[in-house]
């Protein structure tokens, strides 16, 4: 039986450690603060941002939720970022993506002070990551490393294959794995004979954004599968393609009318040595690492 890597438990452990450090800082009169910017009411990402704000409250981190109207302009958003860059009570700035089409996300993310860029998206932090200097790394890739390390899964010398080359997950995940001395291969939509490469993976990171993309014949038996995908499926035919015979999933699907499948086909998990489930694998780490980055930013900015 493959081992299930419990992201909820690992995230809880990291949050406990962050809360502990936040208490230590409080004794020195320092309180880390996060500004969460969510453009527009009723956006699909509202729930994600609320969870981030709630995590701050749980850990003793100050948070300020800012919700500009969805008619906001790039200039107005730049003014907001400039004000947040200047605020001493704010250590981290998170601008939830995606943004409305009239807002130039690139210009905006580049305007965030690198020292407050807790998403790790700023080119300066991307550069620090490439150079192997400790700075603020993107949360989901950092969470992948935490899952592997805290589960005692060896990384050094292993062949890690990352499928997906996004700036937010694939590329930074590959760099972090490289810094842990993995042998890293990055694959993407133009890769020839993808399965021949994924079958060599001791650690396979699936960050493609396509439901069930990694099928059993693409997996080396005993590999560790890290599934970053969050794909909602809401029709019966699709459900059966992934979960036929899974009575527990079926009950949840019938009740809610939808369920989530990752980028790894559930049948492929059966071959794994260990895997992160969806939901409850990588997802919870993203918020935990955001909290860790906010704490880190607060300390770095004060030279602690
Ligand atoms: N939208 C989806 N994932 C993320 C993330 O990690 N950070 C931000 N800011 N927006 C997102």
Q: What would you note in describing this structure?
A:
By secondary structure, the chain is an alpha/beta fold. The chain folds into 2 domains: 28-114, 3-Layer(aba) Sandwich (Rossmann fold), CATH 3.40.50; 139-285, Rossmann fold (3-Layer(aba) Sandwich). 43% of the residues lie in helices and 14% in strands. It is built from 12 helices and 11 strands. The strands form 3 sheets. The protein has a 6-stranded parallel beta sheet with strand order 1-11-8-7-5-6. Strands 3-2-4 form a 3-stranded parallel beta sheet, sandwiched between helices. α2 (46-59) links the parallel β2 (33-37) and β3 (62-66). α3 packs parallel to α4 (105-111), α6 (139-150) crosses α7 and α6 packs across α12. The longest helix is centred in the first third of the chain and has 21 residues, at 7-27. The radius of gyration is 20 Å and the shape is globular. It starts with a strand and ends with a helix. The mean pLDDT is 97. It binds guanine. The site of guanine has 7 residues, from β4.
**Amount of helix:** 40-55%
| The CATH superfamily title of the largest domain | NAD(P)-binding Rossmann-like Domain
Number of domains: 2
Strand segment tally: 11
N- to C-terminal distance: 45 Å
Quaternary structure classification: single chain
Rg over C-alpha atoms, rounded to the nearest angstrom: 20 Å
Query: Can you tell me the residue ranges where pLDDT is under 50 for at least 5 consecutive residues?
Result: none
Strand order of the largest sheet: 1-11-8-7-5-6
Could you tell me the mean pLDDT? 97
Largest sheet: 6 strands, parallel
Order of helices and strands: EHEHEHEHHHEHEHEEEHHEHEH
The CATH topology of the largest domain: Rossmann fold
Strand content: 5-15%
**Bound heterogens, unique:** guanine
Question: What's the CATH C level of the largest domain?
Answer: Alpha Beta
Task: Give the count of helical stretches.
Answer: 12
| Secondary structure category | alpha/beta
CATH architectural name of the largest domain: 3-Layer(aba) Sandwich
């Amino acid at each position: 039986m493959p081992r299930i890597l419990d992201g909820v438990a690992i995230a809880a452990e990291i949050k406990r450690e962050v809360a502990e450090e936040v208490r230590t800082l409080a004794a020195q009169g320092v309180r880390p603060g996060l500004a969460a910017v969510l453009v527009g009411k009723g956006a699909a990402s509202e729930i994600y941002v609320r969870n981030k704000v709630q995590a701050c409250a749980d850990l003793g981190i100050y948070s300020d939720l800012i919700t500009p109207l969805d008619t906001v302009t790039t200039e107005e958003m730049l003014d907001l970022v400039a004000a947040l860059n200047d605020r001493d009570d704010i250590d981290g700035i998170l601008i939830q993506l995606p943004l409305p089409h009239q807002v130039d996300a690139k210009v905006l993310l580049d305007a965030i002070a690198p020292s407050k860029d807790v998403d790790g998206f700023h080119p300066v932090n991307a550069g620090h990551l490439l150079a192997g200097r400790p700075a603020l790394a993107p949360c989901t890739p950092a969470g992948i490393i935490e899952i592997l390390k805290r589960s005692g899964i060896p990384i050094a010398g292993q062949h890690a294959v990352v499928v997906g080359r996004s700036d937010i997950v694939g590329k930074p995940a590959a760099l972090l794995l490289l810094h842990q001395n993995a042998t890293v291969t990055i694959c993407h939509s133009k890769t020839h004979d993808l399965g021949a490469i994924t079958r060599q993976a001791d650690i396979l990171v699936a960050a493609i954004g396509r439901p069930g993309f990694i099928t059993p014949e693409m997996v080396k038996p005993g590999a560790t599968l890290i599934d970053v995908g969050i794909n909602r499926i809401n029709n019966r035919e699709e459900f059966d393609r992934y979960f036929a015979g899974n009575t527990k999933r079926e009950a949840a699907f019938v009740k809610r009318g939808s369920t989530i499948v990752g980028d790894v086909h559930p049948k492929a998990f059966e071959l794994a040595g260990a895997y992160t489930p969806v939901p409850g694998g990588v997802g919870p780490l993203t918020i935990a690492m955001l909290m860790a980055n906010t704490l880190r930013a607060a300390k770095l900015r004060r030279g602690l």
